[in-house]
Amino acid sequence: MDKAFIKGLRLIEALAVSENPRGVTDLAGELGFTKSNVHRLLTTLQHQGYVRQVPPHSTYELTTRLWELGSHVIRRMDLVSLARPAMEKLAAATGETVHLSVLDGTDVLYLDKIESEHHIRAHTRVGQRAPAWSVATGKAMLAHKPDSYLESFVPHFQGYTATSRASLEELQADVAAARANGYAMVLHGEWREGIAAVASAILGPSGELVGAIGMSGPDTRIKRKQLKEFSVHVLEAAHSIEKALGRSTRCLGVRA
What we know:
alpha+beta, six-stranded antiparallel beta sheet, 8 strands, two-stranded antiparallel sheet
């Protein structure tokens, strides 16, 4: 057990419930820590953007950093709840596995999933991560990011499968196609062998990127023609979720 980490959490909790900024001596007395320990923890938290010093009395208070992090968690919880009806409808229309994802750095994070009823299906799990440049939901979301964002993927390129993208130019071409079509397709698994998928981004009320919804299945069963047919249902699902989020119009992402 990391005692220093626990002390830091206790300090954050003490500041969170305080109505006014707190001093080092005050906090040390409440928590039973030495003043030097409290000062060191506050300095670290201040450096990381979680705490700020309030003049002129050298007291401390929390910044909005924790609120910002918490708002992401709440937004994801709201997204899962609001997206579920559209996911169920998409699963029924396609008979394939349906994913709800968000973009987290260079990864996709799977928030929710409805399994295909077929015996052979895509194998992923809620909470799992995947390289965003190698899966359909990731590419759909990257279509709504500036081109400069794609450069951050270059150090991470690797050959997961024979069709994995290995250059910035290849990824840029995929993203350009997703921007033009409004959806992204993977014809043959770029992260996992033998997976075909199509996905569309989900935008919030102000046009901000919220997440993506997509369906996937084995490429032995799903060919290009089926993916294009399924794209209609995927787009409908994305629009339905956007409407639930309060978005009334749709415009395709960033062109920077």
